[in-house]
Write a structure and sequence with these properties.
The chain has 98 residues and is mainly beta. The chain is built from one helix and five strands. 12% of the residues lie in helices and 40% in strands.
Length: 98
């Protein structure tokens, strides 16, 4: 995760009513996934979030996040499709970097 991704997470922490995040994440089994999340609680090492792909709360470690993209919350439907980062389909194809 680079400094731009960190700034996006900080923005999300302070304006969580208007934004969700599309993260590329390596899970505890080493699988890379794309998730759409709405963080609810932050810690030094990670955050708890409503995972809109899995429709449940999950814990995410900051060291396993390798990409962050902010999405306007009003542009997201629940549930979002669960995709791997290598699939051609993007759960948010209409998005551009903000």
């Amino acid at each position: 995760m680079d400094s731009t991704d960190k700034r996006r997470l900080i923005r999300l922490a302070f304006d969580h009513d208007h934004w969700v995040a599309r993260i590329e994440y390596t899970d505890r089994h080493g699988e890379q996934t794309v998730r759409i999340v709405s963080p609810t609680r932050w810690t030094r090492k990670g955050f708890q979030a409503l995972d809109l792909c899995r429709e449940g709360y999950r814990q995410f470690s900051l060291e396993r996040v390798f990409s962050v993209q902010l999405i306007h919350a009003c542009d997201v439907q629940i549930p979002e499709p669960l995709l791997s980062p290598v699939e051609d389909q993007d759960p948010c194809p209409q998005l551009t970097s903000r």
